[in-house]
Amino acid sequence: MFDHLGYSVGDFEKSSSFYDAALAPFGIKRLSGYEFPGGQGIGYGADQPQFWINSGAALRDHVHLAFAAKNRAEVDAFYAAAIAAGGKDNGAPGLRPQYHPNYYAAFVYDPDGHNVEAVCHAPE
Protein backbone atom coordinates (compact mmCIF):
# COMPACT_ATOMS: atom_id res chain seq x y z
CA MET A 1 0.00 0.00 0.00
CA PHE A 2 1.30 3.49 -0.77
CA ASP A 3 0.15 7.09 -0.85
CA HIS A 4 2.04 7.91 -4.02
CA LEU A 5 5.02 6.84 -6.06
CA GLY A 6 7.06 8.67 -8.65
CA TYR A 7 10.20 8.46 -10.70
CA SER A 8 11.98 10.04 -13.66
CA VAL A 9 11.64 8.64 -17.17
CA GLY A 10 14.08 8.92 -20.04
CA ASP A 11 11.59 9.93 -22.76
CA PHE A 12 8.78 11.89 -21.14
CA GLU A 13 6.51 12.02 -24.21
CA LYS A 14 6.88 8.31 -24.97
CA SER A 15 6.35 7.31 -21.33
CA SER A 16 3.36 9.62 -20.83
CA SER A 17 1.69 8.18 -23.96
CA PHE A 18 2.42 4.65 -22.71
CA TYR A 19 0.94 5.27 -19.25
CA ASP A 20 -2.07 7.19 -20.66
CA ALA A 21 -3.00 4.05 -22.60
CA ALA A 22 -1.83 1.31 -20.21
CA LEU A 23 -3.59 2.72 -17.13
CA ALA A 24 -6.88 3.64 -18.83
CA PRO A 25 -8.44 0.16 -18.32
CA PHE A 26 -8.25 0.80 -14.54
CA GLY A 27 -9.95 4.19 -14.77
CA ILE A 28 -6.60 5.81 -14.01
CA LYS A 29 -5.87 8.99 -15.92
CA ARG A 30 -3.80 12.17 -15.83
CA LEU A 31 -5.07 14.25 -12.93
CA SER A 32 -2.28 16.73 -12.47
CA GLY A 33 0.65 18.20 -14.29
CA TYR A 34 3.36 20.58 -13.29
CA GLU A 35 6.50 22.19 -14.59
CA PHE A 36 9.77 22.70 -12.79
CA PRO A 37 13.01 24.31 -13.97
CA GLY A 38 14.12 22.17 -16.89
CA GLY A 39 11.31 19.64 -16.75
CA GLN A 40 7.76 18.57 -16.19
CA GLY A 41 5.71 15.93 -14.41
CA ILE A 42 2.35 14.18 -14.58
CA GLY A 43 0.30 12.73 -11.74
CA TYR A 44 -2.00 9.76 -12.50
CA GLY A 45 -4.85 8.44 -10.42
CA ALA A 46 -8.58 7.75 -10.19
CA ASP A 47 -9.46 10.26 -7.46
CA GLN A 48 -6.09 11.76 -6.56
CA PRO A 49 -2.63 11.52 -8.10
CA GLN A 50 -0.87 8.45 -6.75
CA PHE A 51 1.57 7.62 -9.53
CA TRP A 52 3.91 10.29 -10.92
CA ILE A 53 6.36 10.41 -13.79
CA ASN A 54 8.85 13.22 -14.25
CA SER A 55 11.08 14.21 -17.13
CA GLY A 56 14.76 13.71 -16.57
CA ALA A 57 17.18 10.85 -16.73
CA ALA A 58 15.72 7.37 -16.57
CA LEU A 59 16.49 5.43 -13.41
CA ARG A 60 19.58 3.28 -13.77
CA ASP A 61 17.96 0.32 -12.06
CA HIS A 62 14.54 -0.98 -12.97
CA VAL A 63 11.40 -0.69 -10.88
CA HIS A 64 8.58 -3.20 -10.50
CA LEU A 65 5.08 -1.68 -10.28
CA ALA A 66 1.94 -3.74 -9.71
CA PHE A 67 -1.41 -2.05 -10.33
CA ALA A 68 -4.48 -3.63 -8.74
CA ALA A 69 -7.15 -4.79 -11.17
CA LYS A 70 -10.77 -5.25 -10.09
CA ASN A 71 -11.16 -8.33 -12.28
CA ARG A 72 -9.36 -10.46 -14.82
CA ALA A 73 -10.88 -8.53 -17.73
CA GLU A 74 -9.03 -5.41 -16.50
CA VAL A 75 -5.76 -7.38 -16.48
CA ASP A 76 -6.42 -8.45 -20.07
CA ALA A 77 -7.34 -4.88 -21.12
CA PHE A 78 -4.23 -3.47 -19.42
CA TYR A 79 -2.00 -5.92 -21.27
CA ALA A 80 -3.59 -5.20 -24.65
CA ALA A 81 -3.44 -1.43 -24.14
CA ALA A 82 0.14 -1.51 -22.86
CA ILE A 83 1.37 -3.63 -25.77
CA ALA A 84 -0.48 -1.41 -28.27
CA ALA A 85 1.17 1.63 -26.66
CA GLY A 86 4.66 0.24 -27.22
CA GLY A 87 5.14 -1.89 -24.12
CA LYS A 88 7.15 -5.10 -24.44
CA ASP A 89 5.75 -8.43 -23.31
CA ASN A 90 7.07 -9.81 -20.03
CA GLY A 91 4.26 -12.29 -19.35
CA ALA A 92 0.86 -12.51 -21.02
CA PRO A 93 -2.32 -12.52 -18.90
CA GLY A 94 -2.78 -15.73 -16.97
CA LEU A 95 -2.77 -17.46 -13.63
CA ARG A 96 0.45 -17.48 -11.63
CA PRO A 97 -0.23 -20.31 -9.14
CA GLN A 98 3.34 -20.12 -7.84
CA TYR A 99 2.20 -16.95 -6.00
CA HIS A 100 -1.25 -18.24 -4.99
CA PRO A 101 -4.08 -20.13 -6.76
CA ASN A 102 -6.03 -17.00 -7.81
CA TYR A 103 -3.09 -14.76 -8.78
CA TYR A 104 -4.05 -13.59 -12.29
CA ALA A 105 -1.55 -11.16 -13.77
CA ALA A 106 0.10 -9.72 -16.85
CA PHE A 107 3.52 -8.10 -17.13
CA VAL A 108 4.95 -5.59 -19.61
CA TYR A 109 8.12 -3.55 -19.83
CA ASP A 110 7.50 0.20 -20.14
CA PRO A 111 9.64 2.44 -22.41
CA ASP A 112 12.41 2.60 -19.79
CA GLY A 113 12.39 -1.16 -19.13
CA HIS A 114 10.44 -1.03 -15.86
CA ASN A 115 8.38 -4.14 -15.15
CA VAL A 116 4.74 -3.04 -14.94
CA GLU A 117 2.18 -5.56 -13.74
CA ALA A 118 -1.59 -5.70 -13.51
CA VAL A 119 -2.85 -8.21 -10.95
CA CYS A 120 -6.22 -9.51 -9.80
CA HIS A 121 -6.50 -11.73 -6.71
CA ALA A 122 -10.20 -12.59 -7.15
CA PRO A 123 -11.16 -16.21 -7.87
CA GLU A 124 -12.59 -15.38 -11.31
TrEMBL record:
Transmembrane segments: none
Coiled-coil boundaries: none
Domain VOC: 1-121
Family matches, as InterPro entries: Glyas_Bleomycin-R_OHBP_Dase, Glyas_Fos-R_dOase_dom, VOC_core
Any Pfam family hit: Glyoxalase
Protein name (database record): Glyoxalase
